[in-house]
Each structure stands twice: as structure tokens, then as C-alpha cells.
Amino acid sequence: MILIPQSIIDGIIAQARKEFPDEACGLLVGKENEVMKQYPLTNIDHSPEHFSFDPKEQFGVLREARSQGLQIIANYHSHPESPARPSEEDIRLAFDPEIVYIILSLQEKENPVIKAFSIINKRVEQIEIEIKNNYGTE
Questions:
Q1: Contact 70, 31 (CB under 8 A)
Q2: Residues near 71 by Cβ (< 8 Å), separated by ≥ 6?
Q3: pLDDT, position 136
Q4: Collapsing DSSP states into helix, strand and coil, what is residue 12?
Q5: Side by side, which strands form the sheet with 100-105?
Q6: Is residue 70 classed exposed, middle or buried when 0-12, 13-18 and 19+ CB atoms within 10 A define those classes?
Q7: How far apart are CA 79 and CA 127, in angstroms?
Q8: What CATH number was assigned to the domain covering residues 2-132?
Q9: CA-to-CA distance for 74 and 70, rounded, in angstroms?
């Protein structure tokens, strides 16, 4: 299970809609299984079918997270025209067994779907997302 504040879910959806038709991507930082911050990153591929993080931005997030005693616990990307499940490429490129992979589908434009996955040795397992309503509490 991964705990994600509603404001961060909304941020991922907003980024994906803004970057449509390209895939949007980024990192989620927190402690254990609780997400505390979203870091939208540049998809340097500028493609609707795949993404690559900007390495400089990715390293900056890692450095900032470590300085705050946090860790990268998930990465995310959008699927502009396909379901919220890992593609063959997503599975092939999932090298970190410790991280959660989050995919947002914009296939149904008005009803985005977000799902989380563990991908270990090319084996995919869906993980429950618990959404924390944090509006009005910050």
C-alpha cells in the first residue's frame, strides 16, 4: 500500500493534462510508504509513447530528498491514450525493486485512472493506493 495526499494526486493529473499529448513524468518523495512531495520532471523524450527523466532534475530531487531525510519512494508517468498499467517498455525499464511505479491513464479524458505497481524481476503486482484527504489541513 502507498499513501498519497489528494493534493498530490490532483497535481499529477494536472501535470498530465498540461503535458498532453506527451507522457508526463516525475518523482514522489516521502518516508516508508507515505508520499509527502511531488516533483514534476521534464520528459526529455517529448513523446506520447515513452518518457525519460531529465538526469539533472532527477539528481536534484535525490539530493534535496536526502537533505531533508526523505527518500524517493515512487516514480510516475502518464499514459495519454492507453490504460493505467505498465507497458512492455515500462516493465523492461523497471530496474529498482524498491520503488513504486505509478501510472495515470488519460484514456478517458474526464475520468483519469491512477494505479500503483511493484515491478520486481519483470513481475508486476498492483499495489493499493490509499488517498489521504489533505485539503484544508495545510
A1: yes
A2: 29, 30, 31, 65
A3: 60
A4: helix
A5: 123-127, 113-120, 100-105, 71-79, 25-31, 34-41, 2-5, 129-132
A6: middle
A7: 18
A8: 3.40.140.10
A9: 12
